[in-house]
Amino acid sequence: MTDRDASALAAARSGRAMRRNDARARSHAAYWAFLTHRLSGIALALFLPVHFFVLAQALTHPTTLDAFLEWTRRPVVKLAETLLVLALAAHLGGGVRLLFVEFAGWRADWQKTAMALAAAAALAVALMFALAA
Amino acid sequence: MSDTGTWAADSAHRNRSRTARAAAWRFVLQRASAAVLALCVVVHLATMIYAVRHGLSSEAIVARMQAGAAWPTFYAVFAAAAAIHAPLGMRTVVDEWLGLRGSAVDAALGLFALLLLGGGLYAVHALAG
Amino acid sequence: MNERGDSTLPVRIWRGNANGRFERYDVPRHPSQTVLDVVSHVQQHVDPTLAYRFACRVGMCGSCAMTVNGKARWTCRTHVDTVATDAMLEVAPLNNLPIVRDLVVDMAPFFDKWAAAKGAFTPTATRHDDFAQVEPASPKRQAIDATIECIGCAVCYASCDVVGWKPAYLGPAALNRAWTLVNDVRDGAGAVRLRAVSDDAGCQACHTHQSCTERCPKHLSPTAAIAGLKRRVAAAAIKGQL
After folding, report:
1. CB-CB: which of C165, C196, C202 is closest to B97?
2. Distance (Å, rounded) from C-alpha A42 to C-alpha A38?
3. Which residue in A87, A115, C162, C192 has the fewest CB atoms around it within 10 Å?
4. What is the pTM of this model?
5. Which ipTM value was assigned to this complex?
């Protein structure tokens, strides 16, 4: 190794300077399954406190709850609710798949099928909700 | 080995054990609460689709919640499981995507857990009367 | 095409350290050409200062691992025809490891984590003991056999997003090796190894992206091995053995 390379090695080690993955390394199904799971989880975690607060209005302000429920009949709110249902169903589907992967043992040929089933179930549930609402 | 050497090794060993156990239990709690939530969410989604089909109203919600102990118990368990699961999930997100970790983060997430548990149980109490 | 009518291949190769840049070279295109052939041509005929690693050039050693068109691969086993689909080839050093120069990365962090995960065999027998009797069809030995062929090429480590987001994460290869030893009935490390892999930056940090399993040139599944470690660690914690 030359002196220049040795000092480059020392600099590299101390600076931890490295290149990172871009989108090309992530173009496979399991990555999208992960991203869906994470983004839906974040959305749900942020939504939950709001959800509990609104429901608790029933105790202190019953008429407010009814007015709020009236507001939820508006189409844009129905769309938001459908997206929430989609997020919940997607997070559930992905989560159940993960529980299988982690506890029911690995089956390589089953992976893509499991992801497809989880996605299909989530979309089906969201559609059922949207059509019922 | 000198006394300090043994103490350092013991201390490092205890720290590693503590860290390892904490990480393992976080995993166990996250997966166990996930399994509980899986059941609760299936019920909740089915209920929501049913409820929305028949028109959502505070009377319908309250009627369901005051008909007996079943629904309030169900939602109390649901809220408790969510109060465990969501903060543990956010802990990983905050670490990996915001680069924040440590006892301050854990304390904030503990508060978030209490907020979810308190808020959820209060909502159940509000609706069950 | 150049003046003589032979076809040429434009290739962008990373030069310098992490603050470097891609430089373009045009190399003669041949049938059955591998990316390693391309890199070797540049170093031998165009720019002798290009730094890169290879050894066996037949897909046995894993030394030639680089990032080709964004994905970590063994360049000796990557045909140009397969990857340069729109006639552009981009060769860069492996991701997630410090860059020494050009296409050479510092493998020390990769192997340091291997050691941190207790990826080394801890013997229990002596020369005076009889041979260990390990049934090849036993579940533990089959679990080992499914994933023992790792040669430490770091393609999985370079492909892992969690390694990118969490610098302390032990990574797929180190954890995969730990799994083979956890299942080895001759190994004596026991709970010490389970403690070594149980951490925010240990096996529980894997999110099953499966980039490692996608890219492993030996077709191993570190994801499966890490799932096994998660189960084993959880069971030990519940039984109070961690």
Report:
1. C165
2. 6
3. C192
4. 0.91
5. 0.87
